[in-house]
Amino acid sequence: MSTADPQQVLQKQLAAATALRWVRSGMRLGLGTGSTAAAFITLLGQAVRAGELRVEAVATSLASETLAREVGIPLLPPRRGLRLDLTIDGADELDDRLQLIKGGGGALLREKVVAAASDYLLIIADSSKHVAQLGRFPLPLEVVPFALPWVLDAVAKLGGAPELRLATANPAEPARSDQGNLLVDCHFGELPNPPELARQLEQIPGIVEHGLFLDLARAAVVAQADTARVLRP
Ligand code: 5RP
């Protein structure tokens, strides 16, 4: 992820600012993970502190939770019966039908849980994320540590060239999700049939979640140089 690219940073900011238009006072929100979601959380915090918006939110990662607290967004713990009005999250890839690859930031499990608990999932992204066909970005999996060798075998058999993700801070150690699970990035190449691949991955014991988010997003804000386009499936 080249967040250092100034154009990309501006586009992420524009997508995040545009997404504020979806937010109304009184809403319960899901807060995504990653640099684009972080830009949104920061802007939302400014509006909350200024008294322009009154919201409560569930965060999809410890990092987003910490940021939300810092910028003054009241947080809700998960509980039975809780529905979220709107979740705003980033993506690693999205196509015209708003099928997504997510999990580059390792938060795919909580992101999918929160998306499923939401009435509306809005994706915010810079233009590099919008692709004709999913698959250039390696598909992330969250995997129970005990099951890792067998999951690697099963994914290789499906043609996914699995790669254990290493911790950025200490590449001698594997990366861990907020749940303490391992992350595996799978190089399938272009995905002609994402629903079929999702079905196959869901049958492999030990895969807690995969990064294919299908039929979940209701809209996406994709920012280009100085315009933000809204896509709907
Ligand atoms: C985290 C994600 C992120 O939404 C995805 O990686 C996009 O990140 P960024 O906004 O930093 O490009 O799925 O698990």
TrEMBL record:
| CC per GO annotation | cytosol
Q: A GO molecular-function term, please? A: ribose-5-phosphate isomerase activity
Q: Which InterPro entries match?
A: NagB/RpiA_transferase-like (IPR037171), Ribose5P_isomerase_typA_subgr (IPR020672), Ribose5P_isomerase_type_A (IPR004788)
Could you tell me what this protein is called? Ribose-5-phosphate isomerase A
In terms of Gene3D superfamilies, this protein maps to: 3.30.70.260, 3.40.50.1360
Indicate the family of this protein.
Answer: Belongs to the ribose 5-phosphate isomerase family.
Summarize the protein's role.
Catalyzes the reversible conversion of ribose-5-phosphate to ribulose 5-phosphate.
Q: Does the keyword Acetylation apply?
A: no
- Record note on quaternary structure: Homodimer.
Q: Report the catalytic activity.
A: aldehydo-D-ribose 5-phosphate = D-ribulose 5-phosphate
Q: What does the organism's lineage look like at the top?
A: Bacteria, Pseudomonadati, Bacteroidota, Cytophagia, Cytophagales
Q: Which residues form the active site?
A: 111
**Record: residues binding substrate:** 33-36, 89-92, 102-105, 129
Tell me the keywords, alphabetical order.
Isomerase
GO:BP terms for this protein? D-ribose metabolic process; pentose-phosphate shunt, non-oxidative branch
Q: What is its EC number?
A: 5.3.1.6
State the encoding gene: rpiA
Q: Isomerase: present as a keyword of the record?
A: yes
Give the pathway: Carbohydrate degradation; pentose phosphate pathway; D-ribose 5-phosphate from D-ribulose 5-phosphate (non-oxidative stage): step 1/1
